[in-house]
Amino acid sequence: MQTNKAETPDRKGPTGLSSATTRASSKGSTLLFEQIEESSVPSLNFYFMLGMATAIASLGLLSNSAPAIIGAMIVAPLMSPIIGFSFAAIMGSNKLALQALLSIVTGVALVVGIAFLCTIAVGLRVVGSEIVARTAPSTLDLMVALCSGAAAAFAHSRIGIANSIAGVAIAVALVPPLSVVGIGLALGDGAVSQQAIALSDFHHQGSGGSMAAGAFLLFVTNFLGIVAAAILIFGLQGYGSWRKPFAVAAALMFLSFFVVDKLDRRLEIIFVEDAVKRLFVEAIRQQSDFVSEDAFILQVRGERMDGALNVSIVMLGLRENLDRVDASAETFRQLISEELGEPVSLRLEILPMQVVVHEVSPPTAPDS
After folding, report:
1. Chain centroid to CA 230: how far?
2. What is the CB neighbour count within 10 angstroms for residue 335?
3. b/e string for 17-37 if b means 16 or more Cβ within 10 A?
4. Helix, strand or coil for residue 12?
């Protein structure tokens, strides 16, 4: 008697999974591979959309327009080949990895070149806050990149949440930092900040080259974070073999030694700025003698020299309070040192101002 094939139970594989389950898993991997390969290889669609995204980002950065920059993040397709490279690493596909790397390298060159030409063509030299914000990455940016890479990898492998990829592109910026690289190279020593002191955080006094270096560090930070997290997420979902991405993971760890140190230094400065401003506000609320409520902090800078932390504060202060600057600076230095838990050198720069108050009252009615 013949056995009905539809009723024949599936044979178990060496892993304990049925052959049907194994085939379904293999089919899913093949489909995902094809989708990622299609979006990772160099193509006219990729370069055109990336070029338009760069033009939007560059013009938005030069005009200090946040909506334009956000729009460029959504349009830019640079996230796809980075995810493709991550998937190729976990799957051990050298061909896909090379295609994705080609897209990434040529895409980076295209973005920097277009941003450079846009800056030359427009002729603006004033660097706004949107540009400055992308020239000093910290460890926080690396954490954002790790979370974004994990979200992007998960969204690519789940058709039902593929629409979330646009949100991931906004969360981690790829094209805007590269556009800042091109802008910085085009501006050179002619870059001028809006407040004239904003760029001094990097001690380059308007140097576009240093600005470009900081923006490129942000892109490298985002790239490493996305790749590392995407490899982890793909691996946890059962794609590929954990043995294959060891070389990639080792390379990422090696590169991270050159990146994390600079990111940690910038994060330390962020905490220094936070501590100084919090202590200043608390001192005003407590009506401390060394702080006047008419004083305003314009800028806080921090720098380590020979292991010692130097803090510089630029602020506006009343001219009549300048006679007690010495005592006030020492008291504030002690508070900062106690808050940070280490000795601190403080440089206080006060721009004197004079407040003029003029009140006008309505005319009184004449006596009847």
Report:
1. 17
2. 21
3. eeeeebeeeeeebeebbebbb
4. strand
Q: At what angle do helices 246-285 and 139-156 cross, to 10 degrees?
A: 130
**pTM for the full predicted model:** 0.76
By the 8 A CB rule, do 179 and 199 touch?
Answer: no
Burial class (CB in 10 A: 0-12, 13-18, 19+), 190: exposed
Cβ within 8 Å of residue 268, ≥6 positions away: 302, 304
Question: pLDDT of the chain along its 368 residues, tens only?
Answer: 444 444 444 444 443 434 443 444 455 567 777 888 888 889 999 999 999 999 999 999 999 999 999 888 888 889 889 999 988 888 888 899 999 999 999 999 999 999 999 999 998 877 888 888 888 888 888 888 888 888 888 887 776 565 556 666 666 779 999 999 999 999 887 776 655 544 444 444 457 788 898 899 999 988 988 988 888 888 888 787 666 556 666 666 666 666 777 787 788 888 888 888 888 888 877 767 666 767 778 788 888 888 788 888 888 877 777 776 777 788 888 888 888 888 998 888 887 877 778 888 888 777 65
Backbone CA torsion sign across 10, 15, 17, 21? negative
Distance, CA of 202 to CA of 204 (rounded, Å): 5
Say how far residue 283 (Cα) sits from the centre of its chain. 33
Q: Which pair of structure tokens corresponds to residue 12?
A: 């178990």
- The runs of H, that is alpha helices, within the chain are 19-40, 44-62, 66-75, 79-91, 94-122, 129-132, 139-156, 165-171, 175-187, 208-236, 246-285, 325-340
Domains of the chain: 17-244 (no CATH), 270-353 (3.30.70.1350)
Which tokens hold the place of 102? 């080609």
Tokens of 69: 């920059």
Q: Quick one: 156 exposed, middle or buried, by C-beta within 10 A (0-12, 13-18, 19+)?
A: buried
Other CB atoms within 10 A of residue 137 CB: 26
Contact (Cβ atoms closer than 8 angstroms) between residue 186 and residue 206: no
Tokens representing 265 are: 């230094």
Compute the CA torsion angle 143, 145, 147, 150 (nearest 10 deg). Answer: -140
What are the structure tokens assigned to 220, written together? 């490298």
